[in-house]
């Protein structure tokens, strides 16, 4: 059982909703930012692989990906970051990427390097459940968990398919559209989450648009973890490099209310 799966088992035992923090690797002092996020209360880290065509992301993460690419960030550098984190921390690490960079890198090579870097799970945002067999065996053979997405528009058949192929948790996208902070949660979200929970057996994490303590309070009884991305990435992008880690950690503390 990898660290991500162990985390969700622990969250269930503690009757607690976790927080997964997303960072775009190479946008700011990533290792320092991850350490600060963990100190602030983040339970797991999504290591965002910067990509030139991030179709699911809004302007904040698009800009972060562009900055990271301009800084020369590569997939190999993500593994270097993960190994550095592993020297001091056992926090679950999730490789978060679009499929294209992984295909270009080579699936078997990516799986090997992901495992060897101490990363626990992989989430490929544009890989549908129906195509899981193309990559999941390589991950499973190395003890890596595969995570798939659900959306508000997902049919019962799609929910069942995603639940079947997901390992560590199911990632539920809170609203249609791209990533980005939102002032209010979709009014239909809570009801829909209750419906989805009756159909999935995996832990459920909710992301996209979560940026306030009120959002966390509304969701924590309906999911096992929330995912915070754009709010953290925005704080990093708007800060000087020497303040980026602290600014990112303040977002986590604000959302958790600590």
Report the span from N to C terminus.
30 Å
* Helical segment count: 12
Strand content: 15-25%
Rg, nearest Å: 17 Å
Looking at this structure, what is the CATH superfamily?
Aldolase class I
Q: Determine the mean pLDDT.
A: 92
- Largest sheet report: 8 strands, parallel, barrel
Total strands: 8
Going by CATH, the architecture would be: Alpha-Beta Barrel
Write out the strand line-up for the largest beta sheet, numbering strands in chain order: 1-2-3-4-5-6-7-8
User: Tell me, what is the CATH class?
Assistant: Alpha Beta
Explain how this protein is built.
The chain is α/β, with parallel strands linked by helices and 258 residues long. It has one domain (3-256): TIM Barrel (Alpha-Beta Barrel). It has 12 helices and 8 strands. Strands 1-2-3-4-5-6-7-8 form an 8-stranded parallel beta barrel, surrounded by 6 helices. Helix 7 links the parallel strand 4 (121-124) and strand 5 (145-150). Helix 2 packs across helix 4, helix 2 runs parallel beside helix 12 (244-256) and helix 11 (230-237) runs antiparallel to helix 12 (244-256). The protein is globular, with a radius of gyration of 17 Å. The chain starts with a helix and ends with a helix. The model is unreliable at 177-181 (pLDDT under 50).
């Amino acid at each position: 059982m990898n660290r991500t799966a162990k985390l969700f088992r622990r969250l269930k035992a503690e009757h607690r909703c976790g927080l997964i923090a997303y960072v775009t690797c190479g946008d700011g002092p990533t290792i320092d930012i991850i350490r600060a996020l963990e100190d602030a209360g983040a339970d797991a880290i999504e290591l965002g692989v910067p990509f030139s065509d991030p179709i699911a992301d809004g302007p904040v993460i698009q800009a972060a990906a562009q900055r990271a690419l301009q800084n020369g960030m590569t997939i190999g550098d993500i593994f270097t970051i993960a190994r550095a984190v592993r020297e001091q921390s056992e926090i679950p690490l999730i490789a978060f990427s679009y499929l294209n960079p992984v295909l270009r890198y080579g699936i078997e090579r990516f799986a090997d390097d992901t495992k060897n870097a101490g990363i626990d799970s992989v989430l490929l945002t544009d890989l549908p459940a129906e195509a899981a067999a193309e990559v999941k065996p390589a991950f499973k053979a190395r003890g890596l968990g595969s995570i798939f997405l659900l959306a508000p528009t997902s049919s019962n058949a799609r929910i069942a398919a995603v639940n079947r192929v997901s390992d560590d948790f199911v990632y539920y996208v809170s609203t249609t559209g791209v990533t980005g902070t939102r002032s209010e949660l979709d009014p239909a979200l809570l009801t829909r989450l209750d419906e989805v929970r009756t159909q999935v057996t995996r832990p459920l994490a909710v992301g996209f648009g979560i940026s306030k303590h009120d959002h966390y309070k509304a969701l924590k009884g309906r999911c096992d973890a929330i995912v915070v991305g754009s709010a953290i990435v925005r704080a990093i992008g708007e800060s000087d490099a020497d303040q980026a880690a602290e600014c990112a950690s303040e977002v986590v503390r604000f959302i958790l209310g600590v």
